């Protein structure tokens, strides 16, 4: 049963703590990465047979499989995928950055050049769970940014990738798809094999092995983030419907036994009613066992004196998903400082953001919303600055540059600034 805690009466470590298990996978993942680097495709075939029980004759998904997938999902789901994709594109288009040039000082040209990454790898979970929504959320910003080659990997179940995932890949514009998963897929993207091209950045969620592999290859390639278990925090007032609040909490609890579902409310009555609703609804879920473990281990209801303090508590927790279930959520929006994505009002379930609305659902977890942001177009570009000075513009500032360099004890820097200025002095 979910814990009910009273702010001010319960120690803060109980309010803000969360049960997490150490992965203990470092050595296993290190060995997998080393073998993929040494053996390439053969290691991928072996690991796919071992972990996914699929004996493949080729790693890349052929075009015929995409055609079959589009037919398999049917026109209704395909239309939904396409409409959701357009919502995501429409939102993310506003994130596009432009290069700029500054010519405000005579003889000086400064600027910034924005360029897409050349090749990006996208990991999409497979196996018991299929997430075409993750394909859309990761691939669409990459293609909007101008990434010319997007390489997708996903573990095959029974030798094939879910038709829903392949259909989403087609809609979102993935360029190539490979039937590999786990730490071995991350290693293949990071270092390349005979079949899988090496990428510049790896994005996308995965299990503990995938997360550990992303940690280990970071530096060889860039990564988006190390995503932890899913989180939802609902701030709700006394007028909220306990049935709806319980359903929203369970929308994340069903993800993972380590997921965290938290309600912060001003109402003791609502707290008790939501607790009872959770007990009623959990047995109705196909993933009831997972939701039960999540609620028992990491679920909590925090009773606070008022909604303003409830939001302060939310800021301290910095959740992945924050719902503001109040009449006028915009009155509190400025107070929210730390949240991955904010769902406003009584008619905005978190699931709307997972699949449909447009903002990205790849979000910071485990309190990292204090300093990081949702996946965006910015994750798929890099920036270079450039500087141009005429001879006269350099001469006007060379002495100042040299003086600055001398204060740091770097005489060669000073000499470099003065050397182009004719009879300019040598540094002291």
Keywords summarizing the entry:
43% helix; five-stranded parallel beta sheet; 428 residues; 15 helices; alpha/beta; 3 domains; 14 strands; Rossmann fold; six-stranded parallel beta sheet
Layout of helices and strands:
Blueprint: E1 3-6, H1 12-16, H2 26-39, H3 41-51, H4 63-92, E2 100-102, E3 108-116, E4 119-123, H5 132-145, E5 149-153, H6 163-172, E6 176-178, H7 182-191, E7 201-203, H8 208-217, E8 222-223, E9 231-236, H9 242-253, E10 260-265, H10 268-281, H11 288-298, E11 300-303, H12 307-317, E12 321-325, E13 341-344, H13 350-355, E14 381-389, H14 391-407, H15 411-418
Parallel strand pairs: 1-11, 4-5, 4-7, 5-6, 7-8, 9-10, 9-12, 10-11, 12-13
Antiparallel strand pairs: 2-3, 3-14
